[in-house]
Structure formats: structure tokens, C-alpha cells
Amino acid sequence: MLKYNPKKFTRFGVAGVLVSASALLGFNCSGFGTADMAALTSVMSKTEETQVPVAVLSSEQLLKAMLSVTGTEGIEDNATAEDKLISSTYDERSGSLPSGQDLKLATGPMQISAANIASAVCAKAVDREREVAEDARERRLFFREMDFSKGLSAQNSNSVSMAFERLARNAWRRDVSDQEVDQIVEFAQEFSREASPTDVAQTRMLAISTCTAVLSSIDAITY
């Protein structure tokens, strides 16, 4: 069970998404409501061991990277409702995304737009994982330890941290630090305190939030 741990974690190099503006900016795609997004904390760490970024992904590169990392590329001639949501979210938010690769283009509004797009991509990725039977979890790409047939009371910190590590390795092209794992677990614990412990929809929301935090992080949108 995701019980709250009162231990104080060192927040090294971490910034939060500007979720207070979520209602005004329409930060609620992919089934997220304002209350859900208010809990989302994007992990944006740059450790001493990580190379300092030299450029930011352009708008087109950013979308392609998110789709590639999660394996959610669609086929244009056979687009699903999820693909159309990703496309429409990208179109709505592309004006705030970088037109080039200058690091100065990595602004607050840009990161909020990136999180909007990431949530749409992550919704498709998570729903694909939910379609895999619980007795065949090893076939999932990321959320192998999470039981999507049950609420948050049936989940544990390991199910979140393992999924986070798999997602981060794909998106960040490096292993995660202990501090980063601590941060995502703390987020999951706080999320669970505010959510219904038996509602299976909240398990889905936690998975999407975890994925969104990774894909919209500084590590994911720079190189």
C-alpha cells in the first residue's frame, strides 16, 4: 500500500510544473481534471553526473520523442480516438512549443504545453498496458507491477518506482538516481492520500501522472 512516509527527501535540482495555472490553461486533457493535475509534480532533475543540456527539442522533435519513448506511434490511415486526441492536443499547444532548439525557448508555458501533450500520449500508453491481462503483466513495457483491476490501496511503492525507472531510461537515456526515485514515490504517496483507495480509475490516473512527469521533464525535452 502506498503509505505516506514522513521522511524528508532532499529536493536536488527539482522544479514543479506550474499546476496552479492548470484551470486557466486547460491543463486537463486525457481525462485529467483540475484536482488530478494539482497533484502532478514533474520530475525535472539535473544531477552533477548528468551532462548539461545544450539544446531543447523543437516542437516536432518533442512529439516524435514522446511517441517513440512510449511506443505509441499511430498509423495515419488508421488513427484511433487516442491518436486523434494526441494530434488535437499537439495542434492546440504547438504555439507554445519551441520553434527551434535554443535553450532560451525552454520557458514555463512551453513546459506546461509539453505536459499537456505528454498526458495525452501517456493516456494511450497506459490504456495499452491496461489491456494486457493481469496474469500476463510481463508483456507490459512499463507498468508490470501495477494491478489496474484494483484501486490504489492494492498498489505499492515498488509498482510506481519500477515503472518510473523503465520510463525514465527510455526518455532520459540514463539510469535514475536514488533521489529521483524517492521523489516520484513521495509524489505517489501524496497522490494516494487525496484519492479514493478503491477506485480503479485512480490507479490509471497515477500511472498517467507518473508517465507525464517523465515525458515533460527537463531531461526528456533537452539533450
State the main characteristics.
223 residues, mainly alpha, 0% strand, disordered N terminus
Task: Give a brief description.
By secondary structure, this protein is mostly helical.
The total of beta strands comes to 0
| Structural domains: how many | 1
What order do the SSEs take from the amino end to the carboxyl end, as H and E? HHHHHHHHH
Largest sheet: none
Structure description:
By secondary structure, this protein is an all-alpha fold. It has one domain (27-221). The chain is 49% helix and 0% strand. The radius of gyration is 16 Å and the shape is globular. The N and C termini lie far apart (36 Å).
Annotate the secondary structure layout:
Layout: H1 22-25, H2 34-38, H3 59-70, H4 81-93, H5 108-130, H6 157-172, H7 178-194, H8 200-215, H9 218-221
Helix pairs in contact: 3-5, 4-5, 5-8, 6-7, 6-8
